[in-house]
Each structure stands twice: as C-alpha cells, then as structure tokens.
C-alpha cells in the first residue's frame, strides 16, 4: 500500500511549489486520506490510485488554494471528487453474500468469478490515529469494519460522500455542500437516504463494541483456537468456536454458506480436508481480528499465501468468516511471500482447500 510522490517527474510545477515542501505538508494526512478513499471505493488498490491522483491534483492546484480554509478540508475535497469520478459508471464492490442465497452444501464445481470486482480487506496498519470529530457518528475503526464498508458500497456516489464526510469525518452539511459543489438541501437529502440504507444493513452492535467487551486474552484465545483447528483438521474444535448461524464466504468464489451444517460440510470438503497443511499469521484487517493463511500442498517445501480471513465476532464466538482468496493482498498487509517448512499435516497435492476445483 505505497503511493509514490506525485512530483517524481520534476521538483517544481505551476507557482513554483517545491516538491519537498509539498510532500512534508501533506505527509501527516496521507494515511487518513487513503482510508477515506478506501471507504469510498472498497479497494486498497483503487484507494492507492485515488490517493496518487489526489496528491497530483492537489500539488498542481496548490497555488490556487492560497491558504483559504483548512488544508485538510481542501485535500478531502480533492480526494472526494477523485473518488466520485472513479465511482461514476462503475459497479459496486460486493461480497458473495450480496449476490445470492447461501448454498446448503459444499459446491464442488464452483469457480472463482473474476468478472466481479470484489470488496477488498483493509490493513489495520494503514489506519491513522484520527480523533473522532464532535459531530461524527462513527469512530475511525468502526468506519472500516467489513459490514460498514460493504454497506457503503450499496450507496450511489453522492450518498457515500455525504455520509462519510458527515458521519465519519464530522463536516457540516454546509461544508460538504461546498466540497461537492451542491446545495445544503441536496446534502441533507443524500445523507438521510444513506442513513436509511445503512440502518437496514448494519448489525446492531459494531465489532469495536464487541471487541471492547472481550479482554485481550479471550480474543487471542479465539484466534489461536481457530488457527489450530484448521492446522489440526479438527472439525469439533472449529464448530465449538462458531455461532449457530455462522456464515463463510470466500471472494472471488461466488458461493457462500450459512449455518453450522453447511459451513461444516464445506470445511470438511475443503480446508479441513486433504488439501495440504496450514500455517497462520495473525493480522488486523478492517478493525477486526484476521489471519493470513499459508498452504503447503506437499510434505516438503515452503508454505505459500492462500487467503486472508477476517473474523466477525458475536457473543464470544465467530459469526462470520470472510476469506479473501487474493494472494495479491498479502503485499498490502506487509506479509511475507512464503513461510519456511515446519510442522504440519500434509495431504495429497491435488486437494483444494476451498472445496472447489478452481
């Protein structure tokens, strides 16, 4: 998740803006701007591009800014407009649960759907420590939770912008109207519609509230027990961690599963089956506990990246497993490209941990 300097081609542009001075000026805001772009677009890679475009436009337009108002507000204006341009005419980024009903049993012939631009996870390491604005409804980590970002993707661009600028960043309707070149009435209307959509889609309790109710030892225990269950191929140990209505989805696989029976049927045919041996590294994603899974298909050799699984918890159990089967995400999380050989239960090299034949 790196964004290069917008001025790599030269040190000065219109108005004689110095590259080093501009870079130092915007450096404290880069991480929070990147997170804003992610909330708008649902993709780390798209957020990288949007931030790059934002900084380029801002650098070129800095002479016209002339210190009128807040630099932070001006950069958010530029970033929001960049994201609105990107959203226009583009399909939203979904999760499998958004596209169809759950499968009651493992689907052996499922294929990854590469035609869908799926929602992507966001590394916690990229989150800036931004104080909650007095009028904001959501804290920073709440506003990158999977459920929140997935719900935002159901909004048209103007509603996304109004909601994020008002309820996450704490700008007033008048300020947002100026940022979006529209009227306060239009902003308030977009905000009301966006809030209705989110109210229908978000759980009653955020993950941040759920995590605060768990002490560190209990949270660590859940994560370790989940990883151990997969590494040991232990179905009973896995089931003991799950809620009765647990869901498991694996973008870009279109099929997903709901309930202990369906999830266990899938798990036995896939990750708990004869696919190889697993190792896991704990990571933080979307303000939630997550694990990077590495798979070794044969009895020797390194473990290679397979998925990043984000855990959604409820009442001390796992209510949702969202496994992102995109190994390109590992670089964004700063994860190693492989893990050295170690203890594990190797299985036949032709097994498939998704329970599919990809």
Automatic annotation (TrEMBL):
Domain annotation SnoaL-like: ranges: 223-320
Coiled coil (residue ranges): none
Subunit architecture: Interacts transiently with the RNA polymerase catalytic core formed by RpoA, RpoB, RpoC and RpoZ (2 alpha, 1 beta, 1 beta' and 1 omega subunit) to form the RNA polymerase holoenzyme that can initiate transcription.
Residues in RNA polymerase sigma factor 70 region 4 type domain copies: 147-196
Organism taxonomic ancestry: Bacteria, Bacillati, Actinomycetota, Actinomycetes, Micromonosporales
Gene3D superfamilies attached to this UniProt entry: 1.10.1740.10, 3.10.450.50, Winged helix-like DNA-binding domain superfamily/Winged helix DNA-binding domain
Family: Belongs to the sigma-70 factor family. ECF subfamily.
The protein's name in its UniProt record: Sigma-70 family RNA polymerase sigma factor
Keywords: Sigma factor, Transcription, Transcription regulation
Tagged with keyword tRNA processing: no
Domain RNA polymerase sigma-70 region per the UniProt entry, residue ranges: 25-92
Disordered: annotated span: 336-358
Matching InterPro entries: NTF2-like_dom_sf, RNA_pol_sigma-70-like, RNA_pol_sigma-70_dom, RNA_pol_sigma-G_actinobac, RNA_pol_sigma70_r2, RNA_pol_sigma70_r4_t2, RNA_pol_sigma_r2, RNA_pol_sigma_r3/r4-like
